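Module 6 notes. Inverse folding takes a fixed backbone as the condition and produces residue identities as the prediction. Think of it as a translation problem where the source language is geometry and the target language is the twenty amino acids. Below is one complete input and output pair. Work through it position by position during the lab.
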């Protein structure tokens, strides 16, 4: 196979989870040109396994592209009748797609996947019909030089110099039940600033809804952190995280970016997050104290389980992850790198 196209019409978190499958595909077909079409093409533009990364086109433009480029293989990562029909009409020889009532008859090879799989394992399972050699691969994203320069300017305006060591705090989710609370983040900032004067704090925002939350946290802090009030582009956001020591916040896009960049991170995960959310392999995942849970982590949940996470618990994890040079004591972290004071 000389010309391969992957269409991934998913959120940025899923696109990061696609990178291990791309590494496996490139290792098995080293001479093939692997192209990716996605809503956030910049995530993969610096990836050595990817020949070209393009934005999602309209139906007729995609059909024309598929005919002109003459792709040998098309992998659709999410059931979509529109993209499946475009590939069928363009005459792509091999079309691999997840099994679905509306798209399976348009696929050359529909793939049945297991329920409850993580996004990473799901994408790798789509490669099995190719009889490829599977091996352990990590999520990776790469930051370009242009993005690094833009990130340096933003950090300078926020009051952070190139020599400064800083940690990003991302208050996170839009929904209240996925937050630890504004007062919690303000107290965490003050405690870190008081005990670690060589470390600075940067409040991150990833959407217009987050700006108001970040502003409230900023004014509640005694020791004022640096803050980025203007929402940066996602490529610049990755460059900012790459310059930092790591990220503290909810299970959201900055945590996924930090994990893909190999940065340390502390992620606050709801009780049912394993079922509803794709948690990245972070340095530590703090779970709340067990309590009755509705399990509606992606919807409105009255339990607000993250409110039970204490400042003492979080700071102890922070001290072990970010500041201590010695390896953590045995028995604190399990195989999943999950930490909880309630079980010790």
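Target side of the pair, the amino acids:
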């Amino acid at each position: 196979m000389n010309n391969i196209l992957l269409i991934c019409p998913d959120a940025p978190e899923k696109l990061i989870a696609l990178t291990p499958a791309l590494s496996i595909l490139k290792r098995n077909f080293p001479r093939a040109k692997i192209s990716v079409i996605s809503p956030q093409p910049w995530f993969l533009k610096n990836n050595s396994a990817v020949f070209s990364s393009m934005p999602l086109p309209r139906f007729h433009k995609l059909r024309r592209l598929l005919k002109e480029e003459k792709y040998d293989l098309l992998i659709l990562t999410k059931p979509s009748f529109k993209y499946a029909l475009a590939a069928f009409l363009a005459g792509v020889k091999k079309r691999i797609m997840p099994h679905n009532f509306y798209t399976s008859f348009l696929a050359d090879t529909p793939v049945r996947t297991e329920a409850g799989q993580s996004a990473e394992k799901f994408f790798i399972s789509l490669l099995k019909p190719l009889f490829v050699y599977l091996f352990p691969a990590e999520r990776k994203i790469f930051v370009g030089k242009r993005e690094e320069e833009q990130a340096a300017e933003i950090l300078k305006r926020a009051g952070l110099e190139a020599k400064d060591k800083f940690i990003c705090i991302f208050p996170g989710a839009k929904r209240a039940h996925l937050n630890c609370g504004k007062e919690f983040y303000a107290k965490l900032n003050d405690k870190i600033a008081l005990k670690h004067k060589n470390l600075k704090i940067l409040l991150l925002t990833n959407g217009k809804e987050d700006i108001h939350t970040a502003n409230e946290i900023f004014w509640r802090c005694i020791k004022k952190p640096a803050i980025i009030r203007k929402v940066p582009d996602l490529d610049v956001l990755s460059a900012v995280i790459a310059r930092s020591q790591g990220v503290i916040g909810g299970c959201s896009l900055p945590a996924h970016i930090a994990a893909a960049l190999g940065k340390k991170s502390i992620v606050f995960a709801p009780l049912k997050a394993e079922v509803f959310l794709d948690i990245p392999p972070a340095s530590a995942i703090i779970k709340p104290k067990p309590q009755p849970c509705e399990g509606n982590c992606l919807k409105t949940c009255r339990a607000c389980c993250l409110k039970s996470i204490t400042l003492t618990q979080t700071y102890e994890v922070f001290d072990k992850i970010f500041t201590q040079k010695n390896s953590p004591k045995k028995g604190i972290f399990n195989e999943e790198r999950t930490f909880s004071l309630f079980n010790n």
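Reference fact for the lab report: Confidence is low (pLDDT under 50) at residues 326-337, 339-344.
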